[in-house]
Amino acid sequence: MGQNLVQPNLGLIVWTLVTFVLLAFILRKFAWGPILGMIEEREKTIREALEESKRAREAADEALAKQKEMMTRARAEAARIVTEGQKEVEKIRSEILEKARGEASAVLEQGRKQIEFETKQAIAQLKGTVVDVALAAASKLIHASLDDAKHRQLVEEYLEELPTLQKSH
Amino acid sequence: MSFFLALLQKNPEAARAAAEGAAAATQTAGHPAGDKFDAGHMILEHILDSNTLEFPPFGEVHLPHFHLFGLDLSITRHVVMMWAASLIIVSLAVLAARIHRLAPGKLGHLVEMAVLFIRDELAIPNIGHQGARYVPYLLSTFLFILFCNLLGLVPYGAAATGNISVTLGLALIAFVMMQTAGIREYGLMAHLKHLVPAGVPSWMMIIMVPVEIIGMVAKPFALCIRLFANMMGGHVVILSLLGLIFIMGSWFVVPVSVGFVLFINFLELLVAFIQAYIFTMLTSLFIGMSIHPH
């Protein structure tokens, strides 16, 4: 047979090289290139879809968080407004009350002054009247018994007392 | 059996002498009609390359001889087997590529599985991100070896990968791929410098350079021998078990032998895949080593 199990045959090596190199080039051009390209394209599509969905979810989460925050803020705002309103109302109420109280006391004071004034006037009037009455009575008395020395002395004594009476008023 | 002893010694001259002795012995015995069965000759006849394609019981096809520049470029049985394997791979892969769309069919899935396996389990982990560039080569290597191996298991087929010339050719291409990977990454001079680890004293170069060159050659050499020996060995076992029937000359051996042969055949089916995987895996590993030295 002339062949050996472990002795390489140059011709067969050349055929192996030619066959394999040709096979590799044909496969690269017509099979692996397109297949790998498509696999990569598909992987890209999947990756992009995943990223897209991740982004969308993140955006949704963010929007939800924002909305929640807005809700919280709005609620706080509403509470604040209500509290402030209450405070305002309280303030106005107390102000009104204060004013009313002030007015009332002013009115009272005026009334008191009026009363005092009128009392004084009345007293003055009364004093005048009393003098007139006293004078009338005195004149009547004088008319009746002026000649009487004793009565004369009485009137004189009375008149003597008058200035002190006025003073004691 | 002197042939096997010679083979174990790994001495080419002794093996050749044994093979020629065996051939001579059968010639004197008159193989087809002779009463003495020569198992060694039978096994060699099946494993070695030849210029005929045998299709028993229909006959045989004689393949053309031709020489070019003093080189024997005859189309032999193993050349035909390589072509057959290539034809099968090309038709499957091209068909898969043609029908391969965003939603591939059964064939598309099968081919895609192989593509993804080579890319994601071998190229990217062993070579790194540059691995994508070597995926087509690794895929072709894997499928070529796999189909050559499988052709050894079908009737009328022969395992071209059980021939040392074929595995040597494949190892040569692997060697070229390893070196070009390093050169492409670093340039020729820097790549050669990477052969020797950095920081080695200059006087050590006298030892280190030859050692590293041996290491550089040893990698593809190991690839060549591993594939050849595994494929050849399996066939030798199968043929020896069948030869046992004729050596014993008894019908009682038939069930035992055939049972074992069936078992070994299944084992060989496994080995066909494993060896294709190992060759491809080691090639990607070596390419990775020349891209990332040390």
List the main descriptive attributes of the protein structure presented here:
A: 169 residues; mainly alpha; 92% helix; B: 294 residues; two-stranded antiparallel sheet; 10 helices; 4% strand; disordered N terminus
Describe this structure in words.
The complex is a heterodimer of chains A (169) and B (294). Chain A has one domain (10-168). Chain A has helices at 10-145, 149-168. Chain A is 92% helix and 0% strand. Chain B has one domain (46-181, 215-291). In chain B, helix 3 (39-47) packs across helix 9, helix 4 (77-99) crosses helix 5 and helix 5 (106-127) crosses helix 6. Chain B is built from ten helices and four strands; from the N terminus they run αααββββααααααα. The interface between A and B is large, with 37 and 59 residues.
Outline of this structure?
The complex is a heterodimer of chains A (169) and B (294). Chain A is mostly helical. Helices cover 92% and strands 0% of the residues of chain A.
Blueprint of the fold:
The complex is a heterodimer of chains A (169) and B (294).
Chain A (H helix, E strand, L loop, with lengths): L9 H136 L3 H20 L1
Helix pairs in contact in A: 1-2
Chain B lengths: L1 H8 L2 H18 L9 H9 L4 E4 L3 E4 L4 E2 L2 E2 L4 H23 L6 H22 L7 H17 L12 H23 L1 H6 L11 H44 L4 H39 L3
Antiparallel strand pairs in B: 1-2, 3-4
Helix pairs in contact in B: 1-2, 3-9, 4-5, 4-6, 5-6, 5-10, 6-10, 7-9, 7-10, 9-10
What's the end-to-end separation of chain A, in Å?
173 Å
As a whole number of angstroms, the C-alpha radius of gyration of chain B is 22 Å
Count of DSSP-assigned helices of chain B: 10
Count of beta strands of chain A: 0
Mean pLDDT of chain A: 86
What summary fits the major beta sheet of chain B? 2 strands, antiparallel
Summing up helix and strand content along with how strands pair, one would put the structural category of chain A as mainly alpha
- What percent strand of chain A? under 5%
Widest beta sheet: strand line-up of chain B = 1-2
Order of helices and strands of chain B: HHHEEEEHHHHHHH
Poorly predicted tracts of residues of chain A: none
Percent in helix of chain A: over 70%
Q: What's the Cα radius of gyration of chain A?
A: 64 Å
Largest interface: A-B, 37 and 59 residues
Beta-strand percentage range of chain B: under 5%
